[in-house]
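Worked Example 4.2. Read the sequence first, then its structure tokens.
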Amino acid sequence: MAKKEKVKSDVNDVNDALFIVQQDLECPKNQYSKFGNYSYRNAEDILDKVKPIIKDLKCIITCTDQILQVGDRFYTHSVITLRHNPSKTSISNCAQAREPESRKGMDTSQVTGATSSYARKYALNGLFAIDDTKDADFYDNKKPTPVKKTTDKPVEKWTPKGAKKEQGLPPTPLVESKIPEPNVEIMEQKTTPVFDFSKK
């Protein structure tokens, strides 16, 4: 305990405080989504775990949101700021989340609030070095990938006209026919003489 207190007493600015927060913070995924069948953490879970740590470090944390319009879509721009009161130094991180056009079972204010919570969560993740993603080692590559069965019929091979498919007989030979030459009548071209009236 004495060693831990000694480390906290050596905090001179917000960078020292952030170092301790990133080392001591433990925030398991206590939330569960029945729809997606996965566990997750939200912004409130992270803040609940951070507050006891920053209290001893004499730090405060603030969350601010700003609505941005890009084209015809709206984004929530969230900024998380950690401030060390004794040194009056601070550090911030931001993240953005796009509001869906509509969400089943929610009105417009609830959609904005859910988008804000989502953006704040990722801003907190970046500030406190929390990784929410799963890399390639998470997936079990030993299991064979199931082959999707198709009900499409095989493409039939083209058969010339006159061939019998059942017996596999060759097509009926084509009879060569001569195309008669067109009857072209050549008209005699007559040239009308040109008179020069300037000569008398």
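Now turn to a second chain, presented in exactly the same format:
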Amino acid sequence: MDNSQQCQAVIKDFVEHSLMAIPSELGRLAYVASLRDVGSECYRHDGLSALYPAGAVQQALSLCHRELFLRVLEAPLERLEIDLRVCLGALSGGFERSLTEWLEQGTYCHLAPADLPRYVVELFESNMAALLAVLASARFRIQPAA
């Protein structure tokens, strides 16, 4: 197989065996971003590395990261709010704890691929901060008496 075919095989394997189990686009993006070492910008996935050449794994994960990021960025905010709810609810701490962590720690600020223009990353971060604020404010809305 040439490099392009290897990369496509890695992507197919990764999508079928890793990403499909994650119930939201933001969750998939967060997962791929977690595979990247921010210092070296290298991705690490032991399962894929055991089956495919390192270069094909790096290229495939980088492409997946970029594609997922752009899909999330291009999503209408209404759909992104729903996806964010699903993402936070699926995390191990549950919705409330995950929401608090994402707000306080700025977790969403580490989701962008490294090779994007700064203004694109800032747009994403602004959208995420606004949606997180909306979700946080919803916790404090007073419910009308029945």
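Notes for the reader: The longest strand covers residues 36-37. Helices lie at 3-17, 25-34, 46-51, 54-74, 77-90, 94-105, 118-138.
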